[in-house]
Design a protein that fits this description.
By secondary structure, the chain is α/β, with parallel strands linked by helices. It contains twelve helices and 16 strands. The chain has helices at 10-13, 37-49, 87-94, 122-128, 148-155, 166-172, 174-182, 216-228, 236-242, 289-298, 310-319, 334-337; strands at residues 5-8, 63-67, 73-78, 105-108, 133-136, 159-162, 186-193, 198-201, 231-234, 257-261, 280-283, 303-308, 324-329, 347-349, 359-363, 366-372. The longest helix has 13 residues, at 37-49. It is elongated and about 80 Å long. The protein starts with a strand and ends with a strand.
């Protein structure tokens, strides 16, 4: 049983990440809720943070807003690129220049950092700017920070508050939080299936391409998902039969790290998944799922999109180590899609997923299901 179904076009199904004009009173993006003033400015932080999507990983997406005593926004910023200035630095770079900001409140979606990394600590910047109050959406679970940033501010006499729109802040950075809190990448399983529950017809040779289930628009949506995650994975059989590139060619953003298993060294040097224009890791000695996740976590990979095939998807489901399932269901049966193929056609069954908690949207004639692990 599906909880919700709604029609949507490509335009409203794929959200617009374009920049907004600076607003004195930020648009309430959670308009169905009654929000406090702090929540409204934090909502603006979240809008800004999303502008860093596709380019800041493995760092979290962070937005910051500087507000004066009259409630006017005098500065905004977000973390734009990994290794670049943090949201707080960019916020002050755009702000009205003052000797001190003691009458101002700095809103930021994640606790200001307290350690020296690729950039100096943002907590020290806020003390130097003499900000009067700092409101953070949530504490940073990174062990190098984890409350230390807010402690530095309080010791400097700055008023602090945390937990404003914390649920929304956690959702925004669910991948980063999974790496910090569970020491593994956030796992999304993705597949497309026919209306009668098949992934493909059974194939034994590379020359016979897969059954096409996705539409032009949903293929573009897949590339958006690739851009949102740091790694993408397929099993050996999928790599051999489909010879996929697994790159982000129909959406802006970086190519994900390509991951494939190959215990018997069957992949050839000219396989597209091994092309030099994107990085690839081949697991051959150890291919168990927990080991792969531990190794990726050690490489600071905070998310992985698993695109197949059926054996590998079923294996991961059996371990219980996953976070989301994304299923695209086409309008046609396997028989309808293979009517011009030699008969009989043997189908490859899609993995079985618990649809009781699934959320469904429609894109043209395709049904898109999303399941979150409870």
């Amino acid at each position: 049983m599906v909880n919700r179904e709604k029609s949507c076009t490509f335009a409203n199904c794929i959200k617009n990440y374009g920049a907004k004009k600076r607003l004195n009173k930020p648009k309430n993006i959670y308009s169905k809720y009654k929000m406090t003033q702090d929540e409204q400015y934090m909502a603006r932080c979240l809008q800004l943070a999303k502008l860093g999507a596709y380019y800041v990983a493995p760092n979290p997406m962070v937005g910051a807003v500087l507000v004066d005593s009259k409630g006017k926004i005098i500065g905004e910023g977000w973390h734009q690129r990994y290794g670049g200035p943090h949201a707080e630095v960019n916020c002050f770079a755009s702000a009205e220049k003052r000797e001190d900001y003691s009458d101002c409140t700095l809103y930021v979606s994640l606790e200001p950092c307290s350690h020296w990394g690729k950039t100096p600590p943002c907590a020290l910047l806020l003390t130097e700017k003499k900000v009067g109050r700092v409101v953070a959406g949530m504490l940073d679970p990174n062990p190098q920070v984890s409350g230390k940033g807010m402690s530095i501010l309080r010791e400097a006499g700055i008023k602090t508050e945390t937990g404003v729109l914390e649920k929304e802040c956690r959702e925004l950075n669910k991948r980063f939080l999974c790496l910090m809190e569970k020491n593994r990448p956030y796992v999304i399983l993705k597949w497309a299936q026919t209306s009668d529950g098949y992934l493909d017809r059974r194939r034994e040779e590379k020359g016979n391409g897969p059954v096409v289930i996705s539409s032009k628009l949903t293929k573009q949506l897949v590339h958006k998902k690739r851009a949102e995650n740091m790694a993408i994975m397929v099993g050996t059989r999928t790599a051999l039969l489909d010879d996929p590139k697994l790159k982000t060619t129909h959406w802006s953003g970086r190519n994900p790290l390509r991951v494939v298993t190959d215990r018997h060294h069957r992949l050839t040097a000219n396989a597209q998944i091994l092309s030099p224009d994107a990085e690839t890791i081949v697991y051959s000695e150890r291919t168990d799922w927990p080991y792969i996740l531990n190794d990726l976590a050690a490489r600071h990979i905070h998310s992985i999109l698993v695109e197949g095939g059926s054996e590998w998807l079923n294996h991961i489901l059996s371990t219980g180590i996953w976070d989301e399932i994304h299923i695209e269901e086409g309008p046609h049966t396997l028989a309808e899609l293979t009517a011009d193929q030699p008969q009989p056609v043997v189908g490859v069954a899609a993995p079985k997923a618990d649809m009781n908690q699934a959320i469904c949207t429609r894109m043209e004639n395709q049904l898109l299901y999303e399941i979150r692990k409870q």
